[in-house]
Design brief:
This is Molybdopterin-dependent oxidoreductase. With 240 residues, the protein is α+β, with helices and mostly antiparallel strands. The chain has helices spanning 3-11, 14-28, 35-56, 110-114, 142-148, 172-176, and strands spanning 97-100, 119-127, 131-141, 157-162, 168-171, 180-186, 189-190, 200-203, 215-221. Helix 2 packs antiparallel against helix 3 (35-56). The protein is globular. The chain binds the ligand Nc1nc2c(c(=O)[nH]1)N[C@H]1C(S)=C(S)[C@@H](COP(=O)(O)O)O[C@H]1N2 and molybdenum atom.
């Protein structure tokens, strides 16, 4: 393993924490009387993995991109409910609320977002359920948006609220990555309702469940915000 990394891990007490947790699992693994202890230990290891992965993340490395001819039309749908239960958002009255460590918290309209510089990316979307597709997304780089609004770029987290109550959050390094956009279009057309109209997050550096659709609010914070699947035990970092 990388020597600098080992030193960083040691300095942060992560290696020590890992060994302690390992013993904890051995001690609790067979104890049927305290299954919650095993769960706690596994959760602690998952959190530790999140932190190690965050340390390993290369902010300048780009994920693979694909030719526009490979864009799947229409994209594949997924949510924690059926596509027939999607409740379309009205783009004319929609507003994006801002909170936390952001200087200018004036709410944004769709026209405001459309007026910012846009970027197009053709990237693979990977869902933990075991399927993927190549999609073409156009929108405002999240970095540009955070800079324009005077967000504290040294904060730890960027958190999202959505119209369907699917809280989500990513680390600041992922938020500032060039392949992370507030997507307004798919394949050159405004997002269709099932895919997050008017605005959803698309990032090439996270698994599918960390790409919230129908965003209604963005908060910059140092307090761990968690997320919908994360609160059910899925890893929070979920990088790729
Ligand atoms: N608001 C909201 N965003 C969401 C979800 C959801 O249920 N609600 N599901 C997530 C999951 S698990 C996946 S795989 C992708 C699916 O995005 P797609 O419909 O564009 O394929 O959206 C993510 N974002
Ligand atoms: Mo997913």
């Amino acid at each position: 393993m990388h020597r600098t990394l080992i030193r960083t891990l040691e300095r942060r007490g992560l290696l020590r924490a890992g060994l302690t947790l390992g013993s904890l699992v051995m001690l609790t693994g067979c104890d049927v009387k305290r299954p919650e202890a095993v769960e706690e230990a596994l959760l602690a290891i998952s959190n530790l993995n999140d932190r190690v992965q965050a340390l390993l993340f290369d902010a300048n490395k780009l994920a693979p991109t694909y030719p526009a001819s490979m864009i799947l039309r229409p994209p594949k749908f997924n949510a924690y409910y059926d596509v027939t239960d999607v409740k379309p958002v009205n783009g004319a009255t929609w507003k994006l609320e801002l909170g936390g460590l952001i200087q200018n918290k004036r709410p944004w309209t769709l026209q405001d977002l459309q007026a910012l510089p846009q970027r197009s990316i053709v990237i693979k979307h990977i869902c933990v359920e075991g399927w993927s597709y190549i999609g073409g997304w156009t929108g405002v780089p999240l970095r540009t948006f955070l800079e324009r609004t005077g967000a504290d770029l040294r904060a730890k987290y960027v958190a999202f609220q959505t119209a369907d109550n699917y809280p989500s959050s990513i680390d600041m390094a992922a938020a500032l990555h060039p392949q992370t956009v507030l997507a307004l279009q798919y394949g050159g057309q405004p997002l269709a309702d099932p895919f997050g109209f008017p605005v959803r997050l698309r990032t090439a550096v996270k698994l599918g469940y960390k790409n919230p659709k129908w965003i209604t609010a963005i908060e910059v914070t140092n307090t761990y915000p968690g997320g919908f699947w994360e609160s059910k035990g899925f890893p929070w970092f979920a990088g790729m």
